[in-house]
Write a structure and sequence with these properties.
The chain is 44% helix and 22% strand. It is an alpha/beta fold and 302 residues long. It folds into 3 domains: 73 residues, Orthogonal Bundle (Arc Repressor Mutant, subunit A), CATH 1.10.10.10; 105 residues, Periplasmic binding protein-like II (D-Maltodextrin-Binding Protein, domain 2), CATH 3.40.190.10; 105 residues, D-Maltodextrin-Binding Protein, domain 2 (3-Layer(aba) Sandwich), CATH 3.40.190.10. The strands form 3 sheets. Strands 3, 4, 5, 6, 7, 10, 11 and 12 form an 8-stranded mixed β-sheet that branches. A two-stranded antiparallel sheet has the order 1-2. The protein has a two-stranded parallel ribbon with strand order 8-9. Helix 1 crosses helix 2, helix 1 crosses helix 4 and helix 2 packs across helix 3. The chain is globular. It holds the Pfam family HTH_1. Belongs to the LysR transcriptional regulatory family. InterPro entries: HTH-type_LysR_regulators, LysR_HTH_N, LysR_subst-bd, WH-like_DNA-bd_sf, WH_DNA-bd_sf.
């Protein structure tokens, strides 16, 4: 069984389309199909459900995808370790992030690259519920996201404890208040992260606990679009506090505390616990552990 054939299997699992998988691997579609048939002959079982188009993997094929991902991840770990022994730490880290963790991952990348300047970062925005799957499928190396029960089964280190705050344009009369209740915020035109994000689910829970259910005038998966709406003075928003003060969202807006008993949420670096962690990931974990405290983002944010 050839490694490149395993790469074809993983590409097909990712693209769910023969033509796109072939293009991703730099081969023709007939070449990819021929390689898959060779694999099936070698394994003695069909791995792909074929009709006029890709219809998924057989149960045996699904297991093969898992093995191929694991073996290719081990191959990458081996190559990274050999490269590190030869010329020091280098390569590319793939970091999945929640929308409002963008500022934190930028600071982490800068701090890490000060120590290891030849390391490159791919920052990948992934929905919170998809992050465990992306980690387990080796699509990302680590993630910076909010820590919930699902993520606690992975290796994790809390980088900050955040509180939700309201961001109110100065033109709104309510901007003069020292603190706000959820019911107060619900009366404003709101620009919020989309309902698919962890942050929005937490925000909606706050509104629901107060007995209100506002409909935002704008919602987006992109933090930048939410902040631009606030900067334009069109709407207010609610976001995790320690990330907000790290983003130049609007000089003409105020960050106001929200009155709430349960308003604290942990942002954490998470990774897949493996016996042979890729050297880049291992270095990232140790760097963050040594330089980030629970109550402050320390050197990464200050």
């Amino acid at each position: 069984m050839l490694l490149r054939h395993m790469e074809y299997v993983v590409a097909l699992a990712q693209e769910r389309h023969f033509g796109r998988a072939a293009a991703l691997c730099g081969v023709t579609q007939p070449g990819l199909s021929s390689a898959l048939k060779t694999l099936e002959a070698e394994l003695g079982t069909p791995i792909v459900q074929r009709h006029q188009r890709f219809d998924g993997f057989t149960p045996e094929g699904e297991r093969l995808v898992e093995w191929c991902r694991r073996i290719l991840a081990d191959k990458r770990a081996m190559l990274d370790e050999m490269a590190t022994m030869r010329s020091g730490l280098s390569g590319r880290l793939r970091i999945g992030v929640a929308p409002s963790a963008s500022a934190t991952v930028t600071r982490v990348a800068k701090y890490f690259r000060d120590l290891y300047p030849t390391v490159l970062f791919d920052v990948i925005h992934v929905r919170h519920e998809r992050l465990p799957t992306e980690l387990q499928d080796f699509q990302i190396d680590a993630a910076i996201t909010f820590l919930d029960e699902e993520n606690r089964r992975f290796g994790h280190h809390i980088v900050s404890r955040q509180c939700l705050s309201a961001i109110i344009p100065d033109s709104f009369d309510i901007a003069e208040r020292a603190s706000l209740a959820w019911a107060d915020i619900a009366q404003l035109p709101l620009s919020l992260l989309s309902r698919q994000t962890y942050e929005r689910r937490v925000i909606d829970a706050g509104f629901q606990a107060a007995g209100v259910n506002p409909e935002p005038v704008l919602q987006s998966e992109m933090l930048s679009e939410v902040l631009l709406s606030v900067a334009a003075g069109d709407a207010a928003t609610v976001l995790p506090m320690s990330n907000i003060k790290d983003v130049p969202f609007a000089p003409s807006a105020k960050m106001i505390e929200i009155d709430s008993e349960e308003n604290s949420h942990d942002l954490a670096l998470i990774w897949l616990n493996l016996s042979n962690i890729v050297p880049l990931v291992s270095a990232l974990i140790e760097t963050v552990k040594q330089n980030v405290s629970v109550d402050a983002v320390a050197d990464l944010i200050d």
